[in-house]
UniProtKB/TrEMBL annotation:
Protein name: Small ribosomal subunit biogenesis GTPase RsgA
Record has NADP as a keyword: no
Complexes and interactors: Monomer. Associates with 30S ribosomal subunit, binds 16S rRNA.
Organism per entry: Cryptosporangium minutisporangium
HAMAP family: GTPase_RsgA
Gene (UniProt): rsgA_1
Cofactor note: Binds 1 zinc ion per subunit.
Subcellular location(s) of the protein: Cytoplasm
Family: Belongs to the TRAFAC class YlqF/YawG GTPase family. RsgA subfamily.
Function: One of several proteins that assist in the late maturation steps of the functional core of the 30S ribosomal subunit. Helps release RbfA from mature subunits. May play a role in the assembly of ribosomal proteins into the subunit. Circularly permuted GTPase that catalyzes slow GTP hydrolysis, GTPase activity is stimulated by the 30S ribosomal subunit.
Top-level taxon of the source organism: Bacteria
Amino acid sequence: MSSSLEFFGWDSTWADAFAPHAAGGLTPGRVVRVDRGQCDVVTAASPVGAVVRAEFTRMDVCTGDWVALSGQYVHAVLPRRTALVRAAASGLSHGQVLAANVDVVAIVVPCTVDVDLGRAERLLALAWESGARPVVVLTKADACPDVARVHEQVAGVAVGADVVAVSAVRGDGLDALDGELTGTVVLVGQSGVGKSTLATALTGVDLAVQDVRHVDGKGRHTTVRRELIPLRGGRGVLIDTPGLRGVGLFDAEEGLSRAFADIDALAADCRFSDCAHGSEPGCAVRAAIDAGTLPARRLDSYQKLVRENEWAAARTDARLRAERRARERTFHRQMRGHFNRPGRGRTR
Ligand SMILES: Nc1nc2c(ncn2[C@@H]2O[C@H](COP(=O)(O)OP(=O)(O)OP(=O)(O)O)[C@@H](O)[C@H]2O)c(=O)[nH]1
Ligand SMILES: [Zn+2]
């Protein structure tokens, strides 16, 4: 397969997954941007402005997906290796896929003395849940009087993840970060934490103004904002998609237990298997807090995120129940119509 697709992350595993489509004469490509049923797809040849067929819109084709194109139609979406999902911003009880086939989730946290550990923990849970590898990036290190201390605090909550301090303006730490960012990378973090500045430093492209000339399916030239940009180290691509800011957890039980693996491990020693780590006797988590080995803040943070996640799950269940009831009503209506039709021979 052409090196240009490899540039975007194509490998032999994708080629295997694509084989049946290749046999059918379809073209592989990676989605670099989606906009209401239209998506921009890079292929080994030129980029294609593709149309997502109506029957696929519910599959939520998103930036980062590998697709099989038939002409300018997205014919199939290859099964995702990973997916970054959050509770939909609208507060609907659906998950929203923000990016697909992400290898590294870089959690961007500004390096300040009053660093927001709870936010880092939330993003770590989200990242672990996606199936990608999380890395915490402490930005604006140049403006922090005690980088080592903040690094230590954050490393303390980032169980199983690396933490790298950088200054995008001075360039400190960027080489170390390059080494962490391989494959498909996304930056997540609140507004103002330095994502755009960092993205520019990592790609050499000013993403705030980047425009890409593009030929759509009808051969017209248009200008689009491509959301998949090669990293300067040549070892990956950055997904720069809007909407990676406010992140609510969605179905993130697994992610939470990875992000709080230390608490999970302690909880295994609680006397009761359903211990809520409140006032139960024999609680190993409380014992660790009393002994000073687990900060009370971390347990609070964990419990808050678990409640949030359960709340989202309950809403999903409620939605599924409502959908089932609506389907049943439709079914009964159809049945009544069917049996009440003249000549159906309903005997009374
Ligand atoms: N001192 C210092 N300031 C930085 C650094 N990186 C970013 N900033 C500043 O932090 C502010 C926010 O940076 P952005 O890169 O726009 O942050 P963002 O996360 O992209 O923000 P949104 O676009 O709102 O999501 C800007 O004023 C930057 O100049 C850094 O390494 N050092
Ligand atoms: Zn307990």
